[in-house]
């Protein structure tokens, strides 16, 4: 067999079976997903090139795109899609684990844990809402808008229309700060109060507004800003 494929009993796949996922480096995990290298370059070498091509290394995989991966020689659309799909699957499994662990999603810690890996890497502000049932269990989390909070009537209508569709008893607002600093601005506080007042009128209380930074979060409720 050529150098671009694995023989039985060799390479990261066999190591994965023997040692489990924790026994492999990030490069070896990427190589398993790529399956083959390119002419004159093994799959492990191509995997290393993928990692080296990303500014923040393994951390930067969180926001890598199919188009960006295809810039690496030997990475076509199918391989790029496979890598991106694996990253997305990891995010979703992480969210499922959080949803399973936390019974009460009125806790900002639970909300932040659920939204963190999804939002901490976003380069634009994503405004989301977590809809809860009468026992404070998470029904679902939805993205309302991208590009920053406005507090507009249209934005308010979108939030509460979706809350009604989800049969939510309450909700929590969430948005990220691309700077990584979760400190709320005066505008964040002002807009939160607008939504809280609307929620009181609608009978769907806004319990909190959680701001996501890079590995950190701020709860306006905990900071007595709501």
Features of this protein?
5 strands; Cytidine Deaminase, domain 2; 5-stranded mixed sheet; 8 helices; alpha+beta; disordered N terminus; 226 residues
Produce a short descriptive summary.
The chain has 226 residues and is of the alpha+beta class. The protein has eight helices and five strands. Helix 8 (186-202) links the parallel strand 3 (170-176) and strand 4.
Can you offer a commentary on this structure?
It is a single chain. The chain has 226 residues and is α+β, with helices and mostly antiparallel strands. It folds into 2 domains: 11-95, no CATH class; 103-219, Cytidine Deaminase, domain 2. It contains 8 helices and 5 strands; from the N terminus they run H-H-H-H-H-H-E-E-H-E-H-E-E. It has helices spanning 11-19, 26-34, 43-52, 66-69, 77-101, 108-119, 153-165, 186-202; strands at residues 126-132, 138-146, 170-176, 206-212, 217-219. The chain is elongated, with a radius of gyration of 21 Å. The relative contact order is 0.09.
């Amino acid at each position: 067999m050529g150098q671009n494929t694995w023989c039985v009993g060799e390479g990261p796949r066999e190591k994965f079976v023997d040692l489990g996922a924790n026994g492999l480096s990030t490069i070896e995990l990427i190589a398993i997903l790529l399956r083959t290298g390119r002419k004159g370059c093994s799959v492990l070498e191509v995997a290393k090139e993928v990692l080296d091509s990303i500014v923040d290394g393994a951390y930067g995989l969180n926001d890598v795109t199919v188009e960006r991966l295809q810039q690496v020689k030997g990475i076509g659309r199918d391989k790029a899609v496979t890598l991106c799909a694996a990253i997305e699957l990891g995010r979703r499994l992480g969210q499922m684990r959080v949803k399973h662990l936390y019974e009460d999603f009125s806790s900002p810690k639970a909300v932040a844990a659920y939204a963190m890996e999804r939002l901490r890497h976003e380069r634009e502000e994503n405004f989301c809402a977590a809809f809860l049932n009468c026992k404070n269990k998470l029904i679902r989390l939805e993205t309302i808008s991208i590009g920053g909070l406005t507090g507009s009537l249209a934005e308010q209508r979108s939030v509460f229309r979706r809350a009604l569709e989800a049969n939510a008893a309450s909700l929590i607002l969430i948005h990220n700060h691309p700077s990584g600093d979760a400190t709320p601005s005066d505008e964040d506080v002002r807009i939160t109060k607008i939504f809280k007042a609307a929620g009181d009128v609608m009978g769907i209380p806004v319990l909190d507004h959680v701001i996501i930074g890079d590995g950190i979060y701020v709860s306006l409720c905990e900071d007595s800003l709501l």
